[in-house]
Amino acid sequence: MANLPNCPQCQSAYTYEDGHFFVCPECAHEWSDEADTEVAEENITRDAFGNELQDGDQVTVIKDLKVKGSSDVVKQGTNIKGIRIIDGDHDIDCRVPGHGNMQLKSEFLKKI
Question: What is the pTM of this model?
Answer without folding.
Answer: 0.62
